[in-house]
Amino acid sequence: AGWRGALTLQLVCRSWRFTAVKQVYRRVVLCCEKHMNPLVRTLEESKKFDPEKLGYGRWVREMETRRTACSKDPEDEDVADDEGHKLKIELHMFAINAVRIIRCVPNLQIYINKNGWAKPLGLNTYRAVMKELREHCGSSLLRLQWTASESPRWDDLKHLLSKTPNLRTLSLLYVDFAQTDGDGGSLGLPPKYSVLSHLEQLHLGPFPPPFGAEVLGSWDRILEFLMPPRSESAPNPAPSLPALHTVSITPLNLLSSR
Asked: Is this prediction's pTM over 0.90?
């Protein structure tokens, strides 16, 4: 019956409500502060009444971030005259709420980032979001997907992939290789290689680099990270990605606007 049907089933009886609640919270969509605030409060409050301190977040398996300009109260339109300043505030609040929600969903399996749909490249996924995904959901994540113009920084992505041993699907339209820290900053040194022995599907591209980019990127660094060199001393070295069966790669320089 879908999400709305599950909401209706909660009203039948206590036993039905328990089953229905699990379906209601199986998938969450993060779109704007107006709609995220109630979800944050509900997930955090539910932990207080749970002996295991997990609350409703234990049932969340899929998270889709779809940052959009949701309808606002007329009074909110005058919060700031400077559109650039307003955008920064909205992005910051979105990231704060996203972090709080990720901390409540320890069994998350699917993360889909659709922030910046139909927008030009330029924004990066907040480092705090990537950090919380790694620390709170890394072992349970099966699928990571960026399908719009917001892209992860390369160093942040390396740290995240090093903590997702059960990952099955990785899909990236673009990665910001320019925004990197030589020493990893507060994250420490990034890992040299990742071991994703369960990775089945790898999709890279297609999204052109930002207009006017000084350096045309390539997927080489990601491929090298995912497929470390084999040991020459091993008589029968195992393949780097033994479970991989689907690969789709679009060269970044093929789509360059230069």
From this structure: no
